[in-house]
Each structure stands twice: as C-alpha cells, then as structure tokens.
Amino acid sequence: MPQKYFLTTPIYYVNARPHIGHAYTTIVADVLARRHRLLGEDVFFLTGTDEHGQKIERSAAAAGIPPQQFADQVSKSFQDLWKRMGITNDAFIRTTDEAHKHGVQKLFKQLYDSGHIYLDSYTGAYCVSDEAFVDVSPGDPCPECGRATETVTEENFFFRLSAFQLPLIDLIESKQFQIDSKQNEVLSFLRGPVSSAGSPGELSRPDVNYSALNNPYVPGTLKDLSVSRSSFTWGVPVPREIEQAAHAKQAHVVYVWLDALANYITALGYGSSDTTLFTKFWPADVQLIGKEIVRFHAVYWPAFLLALNPKTRHEPDHPTPMLSPEEHLVWAKTWLPKVLSVHGWLLFEDAKMSKTKGNVVRTETILDAFGDQVYGRAFPDSSKEQRDLFASDVLRYFLLREIPFGQDGNFSFQALVQRYNADLANGYGNVVSRVLKLIEKKFGSGTAFFQHPRISIMRNWLFLRRPDSKQPVISNNPYEVFYAADGQHKIWNYTFSAGSYKNVLEGIFTAFGQVDEYLNLNKPWELGTEDESSKEKLAEVLYVSSEAIRLLTVAVYPFIPFAAASVWKQLGLGSIETAVEEKQFARPTWGDPRFGGEIGEINAIFPRIYAKDTPAFIKLMTDMEQGKDASLANITTQADAATPTATEFPVTSLASELVTNPPEHFPTTDPAAGSRTTSIPEPNPGTLVAGSHALTTERPAPESGAPGLAPEALVSGPADSSPQITIDDFAKVELRVAKILVAERIPKADKLLRLEVDLGYERRQILSGIAEWYTPGDLLGRRIVVITNLAPRKMRGLESHGMLLAASAPEGGKPSLATFPDTDDLPLGSRLK
Ligand code: MSP
Predict the structure, then answer these.
(1) Which atom of ligand 1 is closest in space to residue 288's alpha carbon?
(2) Atom 23 of ligand 1, nearest CA residue
(3) Cα torsion at 299, 303, 306, 308 (round to 10°)?
(4) Cα separations in angstroms, 98 against 102, 107, 269
C-alpha cells in the first residue's frame, strides 16, 4: 500500500480576488503534492474558499449583490486561477457547499452534546477583518492588525477552550503536535505571563503550574472562545435543536473560524454518509498556513479536535475530565494534524500585500506578461494554456528560490525578471539546449548516439567511487557530475521535510552549473567524430551531461513542472506526468536504460529577455498592475537559447559583473548568499546585474559550430542599442577612488581574490573574480575605481562589499582595471561623477 499524504492550504476568504500572496501558499502546496506523488505516495491535496462571516456579508453588501452570488463569483476566480496555473489540487471545498454545512453542524452538535459548548452572553471588542474577538477595551484598535474594532454585546455559544490549555502545552512541548517555526510563539501564548516563574521546586509564584516537561504556565490564561454569532445571518446556522435545548433567545450562526477550520475534515466526508476519504487520509500530514493565522490553527483547531475525544466529555456538574498526557497523545495521533507548516508574508513595497492597503500584485499580471510577452513571442503558435503554465513556472521558481520559507520577502518585478534570466533562461534552459544540440549535431540522432559502446560503460557510474573525497572537486571529472546530480535525490528527503525549498533549488541549480562547467572544461564542441578516441570522449561527455540533466529534471519537476515536462520530451522520454503516474521515480537512478532512444524536438524552455528590454518589460507589468492600458511593442525574446544573434555580440562593457562576481560554480549566487529579494541593485542597462552573471566568465566564446553560448549573448546588445538613462539614474551608482591594501587568493577558489581597499573614510573587503588575470602582487597599492553602494554579497562564506570597475575586450577576456595614477593627489574616497 502506498503511503498516504494529506496536504491542505488555508481556505481563502472571498472578500477579495486572489493575489500572489494567496498564490504563494497554493504554489508551495502544489510543489509538495507533486513531490509526494513523485515518490509514489497516495496524495490528497485540498484547497478551497472561506465564504461565510461578517466580512464577506459586508463586502457583498458593498458590491450590491447577495452574499451567495458574491461568493460564487470570487470563489470562481480562485478556481479559475488555480486552473490557469496548473495547480493539481484533488478537491476544492467551498464553505457554502451543502455537505460542508452539514459537517459543520455535526461538529457543533458533537461538541455541544459532549458539554464543550455552552450558551452565555458577551460584551467585547470584535475585529471584523480578522473575524475574531480581541482582548482590548471598547473602541481600541485590534492588536493584531491595527484596524478599528467594534464593541459587540451578543448572546453567544462558547467553547470550553480553557480546558485544553495544559493538553495543548504538553502536546506541543513534546513535539507530538508540530508547529514549524512558530512553536515558541504559540507556547508563550498558551503559557501566559511566566517570565519570573522559577523551576518546579522553587515555587516562587503560587499562580504558576508546571507542564509534563516541567515548564511553567499560568492556568486560566486561555479563555473560552465564542463559537457563534447572533447579530448577522451569513453563516452556517447553529442546529435549531441546540438553540432550543440551550434556550437561546436569538438565532445563531456558527463562528466563521469553527466553520472554516472544519473544512479540513468535511472535505474528506466527515459528517456525511461516506467517510472513506476521512478514514484514509485524516489526520493531515501537512497543513500549510500563513503566519497570521497560527493561533487559529495551533490553538483552536487542535482544541476542537481534542474535544471530540469522548473521554473528555464535560458533565454539567463536573468540569472537563483531566486526561493524562498519554491519553491525549493516543487521541492526538489519530486526530491532530502532524505538522503545521507556517510561512511568512509576501511584501510589496515593504508592507504585507493586502486588498485594504491596495498594494497587491495579481498573479494574472505575471501570467499575462510572461506568458504572452515572453513565451508567446518566442512561440507564436503556442496555446494560451502553454503560455500560462510557462509563466506559472516562472513565478513558482521565483517565489520558492527567492524567499526563505518561513520569512517575509519583498516581491519586485525587477527581481523576478533578473532571477528568470539568470537561473532559468541562462541556466537550466541553456544547458539543456547545449547538450541536446550537440548530440544531434555530432551523432545525427539520439538513436545513433545511444548506440555508442562508451555509453553502456557510463551508465554504470553508480558503481564507481569518488577517487578521494578529500580531493578538491575536479569539474571535468564525470564522477563529479554524477555525484552532483545523483546527490540531489539523496538529500532532498531531508531538505524537503525541513521546508527548505530554497536550499533544494540552490542544490539543484548548483548541480546544473556543474554540468555546465563540465561541458566548458571538456569542450565537446571541439571534439570530432572521425577519430574513434575523440568520438568516445564525445559520447562520454554528452551522456554524462544528458543523464545528469535527466536526473536533475526529475528533481526540479515539482517546482517547475511545465519546463520539466518539456525537457523530458526533448530527452525523448515522453510524458513526465505518465512517468509520475507509473511511479517511476521513487528513487531515480543513474543509467536508467529507458533513456536511450530518439531525442525529441529541441526547443528553448525559457526564452531569454534581453537586458535592454528589461526596463520596458518591468514597466509593462507595473502598468498592468495599475490598470493602465499596457502594451509592449518591441520587446524581443530569444526562443533559441543557444544561438546568439549578431546584434548580441558586444563590445566592451564597463562595470562588468564578472569582475566582482565570477561564477566559481554555475549557481547564480553563492549558495551561502542571502536572499536578493530585498537587495536588488538598481537596474544597470547595458550590464547584467544581480546574479545574471552566471556563466558570463566561464562560457567560451562560440567556436564555429559550437552550441556554447557566448558570454556576450547574455548581456545586452552593443552600447549604442542600450536604452538611455537619466542623470538621476546614473547618480544612484556611487563610484569612488580606492587603494588596494591587501590582495590574496582564496583557498579552493581559482578565480577569486580577496581584496581590502582603503576608501579614505573606511576600509572594506571586496571579492573579485580577477585571479585568472592578476596576481596579488600586481594589485597592491593600485588606486582603482569601486562601486561602493552595491548590496553586500556572500561568496565562499565571505562578504563582498563593492565591485571594481574594469573593461574587457572582447567581453570575458582579461579585464583592465580602471585605475588612477598613484601620483594623483586625488584623496581616496573621491566620488566619480
Ligand atoms: N479564510 C482564512 C483562512 C481559513 S483556513 C481554515 C484566511 N483567509 S485569507 O484569504 O485571508 O488568507 C489565507 C492565506 O493566504 C494566508 O494564511 C496565507 O497563507 C495566504 N496569504 C494571504 N496574503 C498573503 C501574503 N501577502 N503573503 C503570503 N501569504 C498570504 O485567513
């Protein structure tokens, strides 16, 4: 029996149309779902919409339509968007579904019948935006979101949340209920004010008790929770018989959070006559949530589920029975979700994206811009569906690669385009295209290629050992490529479970970079096919590269499924989706004989956006977002990623990225470098900035017939075709005179030098990729020009705080440093303008 895997997203409020914040959670869920299907597990991925409550009722009233109609419209916009993006949810629940409403009523009744719900009346501050009573004085703003609260006096049903304080503390402390990254926050909420409490023996505070793990808590901190509302009607009605039994004076609807949380079980049939799915899939393996709804999921939700245990039945004259931690644990194992996985917010202009602030970015903008303008222009015959799926890959990659999961991250169109070009177009797309074109060119066809006897030997690389693991990596050694590609599959179980999608992607793209470096060092385009030993080498290099690409494509599939599917076809392997269904990938292995037939039609998977077009493309997206009439007349994309056109051959470029940031390996930033989401340098037309340096120094200029991409092809066209910038743009770049005080090599980094420069007002460290051309002795004492206001970047564990200016012709050749004579009496730190 395959292992089951039940995964949920929060259900999205229908008071506003989806934006990329919602898409973020859904994308992460889809990555996990695809990944677990790949492992052969039986996956159920649930998402949906949250349609009741005062907030929705008011939004509908403002729109002048009945709430159901309003909810229908917005819910559809979520469903349509997930379809456009190729999201593979197995169910979409709406809280206005009849089956869900019955399930909620059943849950309410079960809790009422076991004494956990009682009727009372209440006066308090209510935050409509958060749909929660909050503990502030009447008239004060909501402590969570800062919005105005309303004072409400109502008859309410209450849930005995207070009875579950200690069980929750015990379950969380013992990690039986796991809350990734927010555990301490939840525990301090549950424990109350314990800061001055000592350990159990010391008993300095009589109001403090101790948990099973001997941690202090203040009993009574957790208050009972209102679980019905009687001042409006847009919700699931509390069953009439309960209102009668409790002698309610008013009609009640179930509190929207109890209603919403129940979706996770009603979607599986809880409360209906068919509970097959519920029996099979509950409890959830992972529940993904944004950080603002942790309390609802980490306190209320498990408390409701613990209260379903018949042993906790609360009788009128007896308080809720105190169960032992072990008794709770037995219940928790089959009723509580295994992991709450909490992510941070997408910020736009440094604030959480939200409808109220009006700072949202709609996913549709990215789908339309990338789909139509990038993919559509490169492939005019493509369908709308293909364009959407392509663009969805771009967004998926960006969000997961750029934002460390669990933290907040700024979204910017500029960072999106840079990341796209650097990693996808110039990285993955390019390496695939190079290898497949060489196979075609040198062997005529995939079939002829795979017939070469060297390939059956290379298929068995698994049995070889790395000669000496202490030896530095030798990039032209096929073992390194095998090790890099195969290793991704070994480590990803661990990294995925830790939620480190960014690290997983970095690992995969580092491995793509190793394939690229392996190609550059072995130069297969220079090898002929007439001489047998050269042909043998050619077969070896191309097999090792393409097999590594195949393995890495499996690894990257959950993240960028459309691109991976396209590469799979190009490798001649047919449909990757079918391979997933056939469970071919539980542990993909090197040398799989299925990879051995004809290769497919070779196409660019990520058409490149030229640097010169980037500002216009970014403006297009900004305009689209602002609802302006946006059109883009003359952006060109390069469909054939491996064949630069004549106009792409430059010219000398100042401030060449290669001077500061040489790729020691292919990944576009050092794996240790922080997220660039918030630290993107200003655009610098004419030069590729912020990570797009990948491959720029390593790639050989195209030999005749070599499908290698010239470094120049990655940057903008000749200087005279660069877009003009204003003086204000230029003024943003701070160039200053500095003197080199220290220059030294960095162990195991062939191309990097570590410099310390004197700027007059400070001394700083700069890492520079000029070791191939300059010895430390060449540099000491030189007065050079430094860009001083670049965001710091980490390479090889060291931070670089700036960049040297240099020119090289041809591009990629020896850089000549921009220098001032030592005799010049210009003070150090003087600014160039
Ligand atoms: N309806 C409730 C959830 C009920 S679940 C039983 C709700 N809805 S919501 O639409 O406001 O937000 C749902 C989720 O959308 C958040 O938890 C979060 O996962 C995601 N996001 C909404 N805005 C976001 C950002 N700006 N950034 C990242 N995620 C965000 O709360």
Answers:
(1) 19
(2) 21
(3) -150
(4) 6, 14, 12
Cross-strand pairs, 832: 735
State both tokens at 514: 């190793």
Which of 24, 180, 182 should be mutated for ligand 1, with most atoms under 8 A from CB? 24
Q: What is the pLDDT of residues 49-78, one digit of tens each?
A: 999 999 999 999 999 999 999 999 999 999
Q: How many CA atoms lie within 13 A of 81 on its CB side?
A: 26
Residue nearest (by alpha carbon) to ligand 1 atom 16: 290
Q: Are 238 and 252 within 8 A, CB to CB? A: yes
Tokens of 770: 């000029």
Residue nearest atom 24 in ligand 1 by C-alpha distance: 21
Q: Note the pLDDT of residue 667.
A: 28
Q: What percent of the chain has pLDDT over 90?
A: 55
Q: Identify the pLDDT of residue 206.
A: 79
- List the beta bridge partners of residue 152: 124
Average pLDDT over residues 222-240: 95
CA 233, CA 383: separation in Å to the nearest integer? 45
* 50-72 CB burial, b ≥16 within 10 A, e <16: bbbbbbbbebbeeeeeebeebbb
Q: Which of 621, 641, 640, 639 is nearest to 631 (CA)?
A: 621
Residues with C-beta less than 6 Å from any ligand 1 atom = 10-13, 21-22, 24-25, 50, 260-261, 263, 289-290, 293, 345-346, 352-353
Strands 793-795 and 798-800: antiparallel
Spell out the residues 6+ positions from residue 753 whose beta carbon is closer than 8 angstroms to its own.
743, 744, 745, 746, 767, 768, 769, 770, 771, 774, 776, 779
pTM comes to 0.77
Q: How far is CA 559 from the centre of its chain?
A: 9
Q: How confident is the model at residue 705 (pLDDT cuts 50, 70, 90)?
A: very low
Q: Determine which residue's CA is closest to atom 19 belonging to ligand 1.
A: 290
Q: Is 479 helix (H, G, I), strand (E, B) or coil?
A: helix
Can you tell me whether residue 569 is helix, strand or coil? helix
| Ligand 1 probe mutation, 74, 293, 296, 410, most atoms within 8 A of CB | 293
Cα 662 to middle of ligand 1, angstroms? 40
Name the residue of 15, 22, 261 to mutate for ligand 1: max ligand atoms within 8 A of Cβ: 22
Q: Are 379 and 639 in contact (CB under 8 A)?
A: yes
Q: Which of 50, 182, 297 to mutate to test the pocket of ligand 1 (most atoms within 8 A of CB)?
A: 50
**Each residue's pLDDT tens digit, 371-384:** 999 999 999 999 99
